[in-house]
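Work Package 4 report. The design task specified in the project plan requires that, given a folded chain encoded as structure tokens, an amino acid be chosen for each position. We show below one input record used in the internal validation round.
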């Protein structure tokens, strides 16, 4: 039996409204000024990818054994809220990697969490923090990835119903941005490295709630209850004198990160990517130290840093 024309119209209208509400608006692709285009270099991108953000901790072919290896992806992250997310192939293979992506599309994926085709990336990919990576650094990263040797390796995603529903209902990409790199040497530059070009904050800040959102009121206070794939607790890096780095000198900080050994002599777990971070320049590590020392001290007895001598 045919529904009357009026009723049919209403049904069609309702379907259109739902479809429109669910359609994910594409975040506009970033447009870079000529100054940014000439400032961005693959060499700077390599420094960020390999030494600061350590993208290979997730995207390397075998992160457990070779963080610095080819970025051909495949490592699985399982969580009922997202299903199985697999680190993508970041090499420029045309079919299985990012070979057909423009630099602007790569930057949008890193900062806004949106794939070339507009789909939202699983938040395992830390776009929450990379959102404020600067225009020149993000473009440098894209150029470095495009300069890699292509590796053919198909990586598929298996999102759970919960993640599909979340994407339909409330999860959205991060808004469009244009970000300048803070001046070198300023405390703000250390903060930028520790939170947006690097992932110190992502690991060293407690998370809470159903979506495991970082608690930005307790930035760098350490993680007493890390996800189950963390072999150790990321420690308190605020200047609390008892549980943080309040009694650490700048030399203590540099020595710990360069040697991978606590002041007590105890070795740091390689999950803390000190083998990569130790290649950062003295100036950059100092900038991070100065920034961390400028934070409000937060006591965290459940994830204390090593004691200074
Ligand atoms: C904590 C793990 C993790 C880190 C660190 C990480 N990523 Fe990802 N990334 C992922 C996962 C997982 C995906 C796949 C998500 C999906 O498809 O839903 C992804 C997806 C991407 C994509 C989209 C590619 C595609 O084909 O869809 C790009 C581009 C990307 N990451 C770049 C980077 C860069 C560059 C860095 C370092 C600056 C980085 N990622 C650091 C986990 C990570
Ligand atoms: C992938 C997660 C992760 C990232 C990214 C990360 N850390 Fe860590 N960090 C850890 C964990 C876990 C520990 C504790 C290691 C252990 O107990 O062996 C740690 C320990 C440390 C320590 C030693 C503190 C102590 O207790 O003695 C310092 C210092 C440190 N991290 C600084 C940094 C800085 C600076 C960055 C960014 C440049 C950074 N971390 C990025 C996970 C991380």
């Amino acid at each position: 039996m045919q529904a009357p024309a009026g009723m049919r119209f209403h049904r069609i209208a309702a379907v259109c409204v739902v479809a429109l509400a669910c359609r994910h608006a594409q975040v506009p692709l970033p447009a870079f000024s000529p100054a940014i285009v000439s400032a961005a270099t693959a060499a700077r991108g390599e420094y960020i990818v390999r030494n600061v953000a350590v993208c290979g901790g997730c995207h390397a072919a075998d992160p457990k054994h070779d963080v610095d290896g080819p970025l051909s992806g495949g490592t699985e992250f399982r969580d009922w809220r997202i299903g199985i997310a697999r680190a993508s192939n970041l090499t420029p293979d045309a079919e299985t990697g990012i070979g057909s992506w423009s630099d602007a599309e790569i930057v949008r994926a890193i900062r806004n969490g949106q794939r070339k085709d507009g789909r939202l990336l699983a938040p395992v990919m830390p776009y929450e923090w990379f959102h404020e990576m600067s225009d020149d650094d993000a473009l440098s990263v894209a150029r470095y990835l495009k300069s890699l040797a292509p590796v053919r390796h198909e990586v598929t995603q298996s999102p759970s119903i919960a993640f599909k529903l979340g994407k339909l209902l409330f999860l959205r990409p991060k808004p469009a941005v244009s970000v300048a790199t803070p001046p070198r040497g300023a405390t703000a530059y250390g903060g930028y490295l520790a939170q947006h070009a690097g992932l110190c904050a992502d690991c060293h800040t407690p998370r809470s709630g159903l979506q495991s959102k970082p608690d930005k009121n307790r930035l760098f206070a350490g993680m007493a209850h890390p996800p189950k794939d963390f072999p150790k607790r990321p420690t308190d890096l605020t200047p609390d004198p008892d549980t943080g780095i309040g009694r650490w000198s700048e030399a203590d900080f540099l020595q710990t990160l360069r040697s991978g050994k606590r002041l007590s002599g105890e070795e740091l777990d390689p999950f803390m990517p000190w083998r990569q971070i130790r290649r950062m320049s003295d100036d950059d590590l100092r900038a991070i130290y100065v920034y961390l020392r400028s934070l409000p001290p937060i006591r965290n007895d459940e994830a204390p840093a090593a004691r200074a001598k």
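The two ends are 85 Å apart (CA to CA). Validation will be extended to a larger panel in the next phase.
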